[in-house]
Amino acid sequence: MSNFVLTKQHLREVLIFCFNWKKSAAEAHRMLAEVYGDTTPTDKSCREWFRCFKDGDFSVEDKPRSGQPKKFEDKELEALLEEDQSQTQEELAESLRV
């Protein structure tokens, strides 16, 4: 059984790969949809990422946003999921106190 966990960062890195292969954002979206199904970013999101790449921004991390701060760190959630991937949202929320 594979331990691979699909992340937004991985999908964005795949978009960079497609961009470097001179694929269009639409082609990249179709390729991702074929492989990853419902977890694929929207066509609009793919176009926005390609616009960033064309501007020379190849960072795949989320940019800080205004608004309510995070209630927990992603690493905490990832650690809980590594322990037991079958946990429900309610169990995870209770563990994270959110």
Automatic annotation (TrEMBL):
Residues 8-57 form the Mos1 transposase HTH domain. GO terms for cellular component: condensed chromosome; nucleus; site of double-strand break. GO terms for molecular function: DNA topoisomerase binding; double-stranded DNA binding; histone H3K36 methyltransferase activity; histone H3K4 methyltransferase activity; single-stranded DNA binding; single-stranded DNA endodeoxyribonuclease activity. It comes from the Eukaryota. InterPro entries: Mos1_HTH, Transposase-MT_Hybrid, WH-like_DNA-bd_sf. Gene3D superfamilies: 1.10.10.1450, Winged helix-like DNA-binding domain superfamily/Winged helix DNA-binding domain (1.10.10.10). It holds the Pfam family HTH_48. Coiled coil: none annotated. One of its GO terms (biological process) is DNA double-strand break processing. Signal peptide: none annotated. This is Mariner Mos1 transposase.
